[in-house]
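Self-study notes.
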Amino acid sequence: MTREANRRQFLSGEVFNTAPEPDEAPRKPPASGDSVRLETRAMACTWSVILNPGATEEVMTASSAFERVYELDRRLTIFRDDSELNQLNRMAASGEWHPMSAEVFGLLEQCAELYRRTDGCFDPVTRPLAALWRTCRQNGRVPRDEEIAQAKSWCGLEHVRFNRDELAISFELKGTGTPPLEIGFDLGAIGKGYAIDVVADELAKGGVDEYMVHGGYSSIRAQGGHNGADGWSVGIKNPLFNSKRLATLVLSNQALSTSGSNVQFFRHEGQRYGHIIDPRTGYPCDELLSVTVVAPTAAEADALSTAFYVMGLDNASSYCDDHPEIGAILVPIPQGTRTLAPVVRNIPETHLFFEP
């Protein structure tokens, strides 16, 4: 059985079953039954908190937790000039120290730790490279080597300095030429995951101990179980045939995130170029089609799904071997076939149910 996926479409819009499935297969996920769903829009996607039927107080707590998502959206977006992150980014080329709030400083420190743990495969300081490839795609060409080298000179979290005593950050970028317009941090590969963790913290403070939270269907965190089950059933689409379900994963006290390029890619002179760029080379990754990561927190799952996509099959598998708390479904790009061959790491067979 095999699979692949786009980050937003890999997980089905039917995040959970609304009714028990027929007793057809010898192995099947637990039936789900009724639930209460609260939805909102933030960070350019749909957010949901899903609860077991019951206490009104839990619904009120979940509704209030969305306020933190709105707040983080305002502070972390790169699409508002007045966001806290963009105020920092505007200082990137100058090398000056910029004061940060304790929360955003802590998140960026977490980014630095994940950068170190993944040997630079997770790097949120690559905006010039992303902008270069986006522009070249629009113009129907591939960047020249010298263009990539220049863009890379303005990238790299290793050039970011942290002053914990002052809660201040500065950049020591080694850029050549005129500084690009898009520079500094882009938290697209961790921001939603971090916000999901914040929502989970708010739910825990309010006494809610069984729930599922998702942001854009690509990042999920689940606690406890759904109506007495051992966890929450997450439906995974077959990415080659979106009308079909590929598998169901039962998630409990963990988070999940997916990265992939089966939709966001382009072809030039017969070569396929995905949208996820290897920050070490400046070129799009070309080994894996999709990666799903299961981790203790949504921020970790979010960042590691991108990092594993960059690492490739062998290195991502080795990372899981060294970190048994991290699970993964790694799907290589099929070569000359439409048959997918996922490699599963550290996800129990009892929690993963493939369709026949």
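Second protein, same conventions, sequence then structure:
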Amino acid sequence: MGIVNEDGQSRSEIAISWLNATGFLTLKNFAQRTDALKELNATNLNAVLILPENFTQNLDYGVQTNVSLIIDGTNPDVARLVDDGIRTLFAEFYKTIINQNYTEPIMVNTETAVVREAIGYKENIVPGMLTYPLLFSSMVVSTGAIVFEREKGTLKKIRASPIRPINMLFGKTLAALFQTAISIIVMSVLALFLLGPKLNWNVPLLIPIFFLGSMNGIALGLIISCIGRAPQEASNAATTIAVVLQFFTGMYFPIEYLPVYMQQIGQFIPMTYAAQALRNIMIRNATLSDLVVPMATLTVSALILYGIGVVLYKRWVEK
């Protein structure tokens, strides 16, 4: 949310520090309201809060003061969440800092600006649906495949042949990628024809996100498979982990809806960045420059996790 502090005095600074301390929204300060509104229109902000010049003076003299809140109404749920949160904060701010006998002297004048086509339930849910295969399909498939080969005794035969055991790992990775791709394609086609969401299907940007997200899921599955002792045990472990992780990634709803501690946990889960990137591409028409951070994060995490998986796999083969 953008903050324009036209007052610049003690009361307004305290109010901003209160808002910042809640962790409710990420704040960005602007010197001019025109700059803040420009960012709002560019869909880089969810809202703009303007504190007027006489904010501190009016509060000191007990005079009613008005603050302006301009919200991007594209997503009604997010707009309502921001509006309610700001109103509650100013109510508590006045009761705690100014006067215990609360008479609501701070009025929040809310203005809704739809800066892009309104987002409905269908538009919100489809990107999350497409994140599902990245977490479940890729992880569970790669987990079961490796352990199943050990159960069958395939590794003993491979070690007796000219084929290197690592080649089997790469083959299983490609197979898991292919199965995940099939799941994504099927779900995309069904969503497109059954739900008909108004989304930006930017395939050149979606493909690398799907690939990197799948590689993270496969890498996690590989690590689990090297720890599990039996196919059923490893598969159950992968499913359980995926079920738990899905609630921290913002798969089914924007991560902004989650409590702060869950958002903080989600920052350490690669799929969170995949889910956010898909939403930004399909809903907010993000460009390549907007995806540098999530793509870099997914790439680094995939390399680290897959590297750990390869090390565990080699130790597993040697045993």
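Instructor comment on the second fold: Residues 65 and 137 are 55 Å apart (CA to CA).
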